Amino acid sequence: MPSVAELAEAEAELFPGRRLIEIREKNFNYWADAESAVALQHLQVKATAQGFKLQVCSAYRSVERQYQIFKDKFTGKRQVLDATEQPVDISRLSASEKIKAITYFSALPGLSRHHMGTDFDVYAANLLPEGQMLQLTCREYAPDAYFYSLGQFLQVQAPSCGFVQPFCMATWHGGREPWHLSYSQRARQLLSGFSFEALLKLYALFDDDFMPALIGFAKQHYRNLLCMN
To answer: Rounded CA gap, 128 and 201, in Å?
Structure first.
């Protein structure tokens, strides 16, 4: 595993101009892009006015963290979900097939929009039933589910604060994520500076057996995985 300093330097080159600040909330502290955090606060005010206690459960995520998530899924330590949000056995798949299955609902390290700090996974704390763990699945947003009204609110009000739902767009070829918001203006700025060469420099720091397959898949699909299409 590369050092923290090596990873930080390589990660900074992925999205030049990124500026992260720490946000302290009552139940959850996180890092985020400064402009995006302000926009989210405006959306939270609107949410409060309509009866939603809108909270963040994930914002900026480091490459190191995303790499561990990916590796755990690749090696079977974490579940991989299929298009129906059911666990899928990937043990007999080739390396490329495993990566394809993982990326239906999960980002590759270096290709997560959460690395920019402009993207947030959100939920309504007051709608989550007592004792129910947050799942981040589309089942929670079905017409008879507890987050259905939140989903309707986000569709209407998130754009008014500058947010899009990148994993609900027609151009996205993976699983829907109605809980994932991206501050569009700032995300576009940061993505404009992204280069595949910087990603290759990052991947060169790792020596896992799956790296050749990971690089090949990323080269072919990185624009779609970052919702740049």
So the answer is: 42
Examine the pLDDT at 25 and tell me if it is beyond 90: no
Residue 183's DSSP bridge partners are 163
The 10 Å Cβ neighbour count of residue 87 is: 10
All structural domains of the chain: 4-225 (3.30.1380.10)
Per-residue tokens: 118: 């402009």
Q: Report the pLDDT value the prediction gives residue 8, as an integer from 0 to 100.
A: 87
SS3 per residue for the chain: CCCHHHHHHHHHHHCCCCCEEEEECCCCEEEEEHHHHHHHHHHHHHHHHCCCCEEEEECCCCHHHHHHHHHHHHCCCCCCECCCCCECCCCCCCHHHHHHHHCCCCCCCCCCHHHHCCEEEEEECCCCCCCCCCCCCHHHHCCCCCCHHHHHHHHHHCHHHCEECHHHCCCCCCCCCCCEEEEHHHHHHHHCCCCHHHHHHHHCCCCCCCHHHHHHHHHHHHHHHCCCC
What percent of the chain clears pLDDT 70, i.e. is strictly above it? 100
